[in-house]
Amino acid sequence: MNAKYLPMAATIAVFAGLFGIGGALYDHFFSTLVLGDILADNAFVIIAAIGTTFVILSGGIDLSIGSMIGFVGVVMANLDAAGWHPLASAAMMLTFGALYGAIQGFIIDFCAIQPFIATLASLFLLRGACFMINLNSVPLQHPFVASFAAASLPLPGDGFLASSALAMLAALAAAIVIAHFTRFGANVYAIGGDRVSAELMGAPIRRTIVGVYALGGFYSALGGVIYALYTASGYPLAGSGAELTAIAAVVLGGTMLTGGVGLVAGTLFGGMILGLIATLINFNGSLNGAWIMISGGVLLFVFIVVHRSLVGSLRLGRAG
Amino acid sequence: MAESQIARIEMRGVSKTFPAVRALDKVDFRLGPGEIHALMGENGAGKSTLIKIMTGAARCDAGEIRIDGRPVEIGSPARAQALGVGAVYQEVNLVPTMSVAKNLTLGRQPRRFGLVSWRAAREIARRRLARLGLDIDVDRPLGAYSIAVRQLVAIARALDDETRALVLDEPTASLDAAETEALFRILRDLKSRGMSIVFITHFIEQVYAISDRISVLRNGRLVGSAPAAELPPTALVPMMLGRALEASEARAAVARSSPEEPPILNAEGLGKRRVMAPFNLSIRPGEAVGLAGLLGSGRTEVAKLIFGAIRPDSGRLTIAGATAPPSPRGSLRRGVALGPEDRKSEGVFSELSVRENIVIGLQTKRGWLRRISRAEQNRLADEMISALSISTPNADKPVGELSGGNQQKVVLARLLVADPRVLILDEPTRGIDVGAHAEIVTLIRKLCARGLALIVASSEIDELVAVSDRVVVLRDRRTVGEISGERLSREAIVETIAGAGS
Amino acid sequence: MSVSLTSPSPIRRPLAARLAGHRAIWPLLALALILAVDGFISPGFFSVRIVEGRLFGNLVDILYRATPTAIVALGMAVVIGTKGIDLSVGSVIAIAGAVIAWRIHAGDPHGLILAEALGVGLVCGLWNGLLVAVLDIQPIIATLILMVSGRGIGLMINLIYGGTDPSFSSPLLQSLSVGHLGLVPTRLALGAGLLAALWALLRRTALGLFLEAVGGGAAAAELAGINARLIKFAAYLVCGFCAAAAGVILTADTHTSDPVSVGLYIELDAILAVVIGGGSLSGGRIYLGATVIGALVIQALTTSILTSGLPPEYNLVVKAAVVLTVLLLQSQNARASVFAAFGGRRR
Questions:
Q1: What's the whole-model pTM score?
Q2: How much is the pLDDT for B123?
């Protein structure tokens, strides 16, 4: 097997293993119902994480995800109150997300600002904007929201794929095409792998970086739209800390935080592992949220160290 | 290869000026069809600039470029490629984390219905590699392959169907003998199919092994161009090094050390594979040993192996009678100090002040707990600033804001405050004006008179003659001779470098 | 011609340039500006009264509230000086807080508990240092691990003694956090003491110089004889210790262990304080005093928004604006285009 699929294979194996453990421990765990629930509950963060995968592949980072999710929800809720159709407000917010990301990418590249700090400013700015609009949760009352939540695709067994999960899978498919079957995608990998070389090989740096953050903004906004529709509300604190979950999902999915190595599809499984851990711990009842965080950290550690030995040699090889 | 044929690339009167530096001065260059053309010269000769202009990575200020007889403007690497000129720059400029196929097709992937077809891309990649006789798995990441293979992939990328001229900047720098031979076979094969090749290297033997023609640049000017057969090494090397501009200063002929004294430093068979062939070197207190050779001959490697900045994989090093595995910290503890060649990334701390840069040399010796008081720091810094006449408004100026020569003096000051017994200087006078140059040479002599053992690696032969008691000559990463006493002269060194002397 | 253009005129330099060149001048100006606006909007902003033998007033309040962030930022400045970053400081605070509550329930003497809390900070620093200096993992990734799991570890520690009631009372610790030493709040004295101690550790020994040398260039530092790994290790130890110290103050303030929310986002504020204080994320310099001023700028912003009558919701937006301004000021490209736009001379 090609070495580049190894990390993702490991991720899938971990997911399968955890799922098997759950099935062995608890009745009714090993079912499409549980699987569908995990997908539905984590769809918004996985969508955002898919966008972040591009940012991380290009060698950057995006801390503004959680705030974008919250901001999109709050604006949509207010537009809902003003009589907008949710699809119209969603389209507007997706445009906003892409534009905002593009501007952010331009600032990062043109001003040579570290992505960490630039997107930190976005984290503050967008979250602050949430609070300036609303302090409380505002419901989305348009009938479309209820029908969106009710729509689902039955799975074999007693499970079903909720509309949010379907949206996530569609977003994933689009991302796979962009990452692996466009020149833009190839340029992202090249810039993340070795920016100087990529430039000498003729990859358009600024256009790609702007595109990467625009894509990140778009996917974060999409995550926000799905979250708002799924919860039928806009809450200014929604998505707090989602940036951390998303980055963890990307790393667990086999993408190197140093850029250039990874697969978009891996992020789905990275996100599902995190969701599965939460579900397992909920099933247990006697365990608490602490386990989610600790097991997340342990998994991160293991993956980072294993990755270094798998892929790190590629980079070191250059010097020798 | 008759001169009457139309040249593949012809450059006439090409000049390029960078702020404060004239990199190229009315250079003429002619690359014939099916010719392998070696471009030679020491550091700062203008080779890289010439190549960059040829391949569109830089523009010339004046002059004319013709490709196959037609005047052209080469504005970008992409334009050069379109004109049939492919380039492989010094560091293999590909992305090690990406697959070979992706590296080969980046920016020109075949597309079907708007999407990249990787099947077609792999096919193209295999075909391109096959032209160089290479059959490897194109789906594996480039970084999984050896440097030699990566080099070939880079060449394959540079070779379009349209490419008729290939420009290679030091392609053999990190290849071993067998890999180099394999590369040369491929280059000869390309040549037999009509490809013209420009090739920069510092290895004299390689030049004669492959090139039809040699052009030599020095200080931005073309100093000679001749068929390789008509330009023996004995003529080539002086051409590269240039004539002494002024009569080299008379050497202090007195032996400064007594032969009975035991050596302070003794290297036996010290070496590292692919980096430097094992060598012996022994030096007594008060003695000055020069390391001579062309760029890439192993001067820096010898200096770093002795200091421990490069871990040797063979031989042993004895300092003051005690044998120890070389390491920078251990060397400094035993009184061996190194002034590295790469001043910017290995020499100075540009954010730190002149005072801090100087004091750090002594501070590391004392350890972090016994801080040198501010008063003593000021005294040391002022002392060194005046002793080396470092030109800085005050001792608190960040070193990064000083001129190159003054930065070099700060590095020297840092080494000297620690009062070393053995001082290794790699290119101590590079990028320094004439006045400072003389000062540093005088200073080095004074130090030896006080019993310091000195190793100087330099590309300036006259400087080596002026300061050294004996000179070790290096060629192609091995020691090829040692000249001392009455025989030590510029001519003797040049002959040995060219391989005619010893 | 070109020579005269590139060399700056030496005559005008001394006063303006030296003042502008001083690293603390920009954060101090920012602080002064914020306070001036405050004084303009709400007269009496600067009044400091003595009530029941204690200092009261907006200025004291800013200092009081800024202390934990400032302490964390001091450690962060050290790590950033070595070209690193520590995202885990919030988690370290949570762990230190949990250890305090646990050991109080276990009945340790409170003086010992203080040592235990700080010790646990050092252990966290040791872990980060191990990943960064020994395993050579990029700092942002290495410290992400503890950032993700640290709050969970805090929750687990709460569980050791049942976890139902993590609140406690400790006169000693509370006096350190909310008590007063004469007129002055104790935590101000502690913060000042820590600043002084850290300054002494860095500047009365050669540690500061070595840290900055490693940040300026690890390769050059090794060649100069500095053990770069060990020095990086030291930086993460210092950072862990500072975070734990802030953890003591924050936990004693609320006298409960709340790993989920204590010190949330403090790592971002701390990094921001370092950047406002003129520290570059690319390392090479450590400005302790300016970093503290940076923390004060952040707190002064928050306090002024509260006192100005603006809704507190504006806080984050204003903070974002400040970050962006600082960033753009530091970017050469942005400065150049601004100068070009206003017809200024370009170099």
A1: 0.82
A2: 94
